[in-house]
Amino acid sequence: MNTVRTAAEENTGAQKVALVTGAGSGIGRAVAVELLASGWSVALAGRRPERLQETAAQAPEGASALPVRADVSRPGDVEALFAAVRDRFGRLDLLFNNAGTFGPGGVPVEELPYEAWRHVVDTNLNGAFLCAQAAYRQMKEQDPPGGRIINNGSISAHTPRPHSVAYTATKHALTGLTKSLSLDGRPYGIAVGQIDIGNAATDMTAGMQTGALQANGETAPEPVMDVADVARTVRHMAQLPLEANVQFATVMATAMPYVGRG
Question: Which CATH number fits domain 17-252: 3.40.50.880, 3.60.15.10, 3.90.950.20, 3.40.50.720?
């Protein structure tokens, strides 16, 4: 069981504070555990408290993890989430904007229900905006000011898969959000970048190894990579001084169909 630290202990020395959304599984869990193992204090946000507790249980002894149940598509949840982080840690150095959903997979655009489209947009785009806005406000006003936001894009921020209109549209939009936030954050020491990930081995991508629909209509298995490699890349981006920024990084399974996809 992790040791609970006091607020004074949380802010001793150079310990940094991160918030990871979608921390209950997959990439979010891997990144949160990597940051905790590297000495960060980490707030874990997600919709399922039991999954957040499972993530916290993977932290090293003495690490400081704060699970907070939150649906990033709901403004009230986001406000309460950032208030909890501020109350516990006093500041925020990193937001890993990771929460997202594929939505219904393999549905042609003409058959996609509006409710499904709206759910993907609310989670992937509106949720990312709400969290970035809240982080921006806190980073601008805290002492010392500044911080970093890393948005989880996707290979689909560049090139779509068949029948992925909602996911692809939101990931393209996320790139615009990253660029705009990066520009607007300059006067306040807020660095904003994006990591575009392809075929990290998680529960969400398990089906790719058995067969994924290709642009030519065929179904073919695709290679995957260890999600720990993604986590280490995010940690590298996070640990840079605020004077340096990885604006965009692409981390993917080497042989996956991206370069030349379709």
Answer: 3.40.50.720
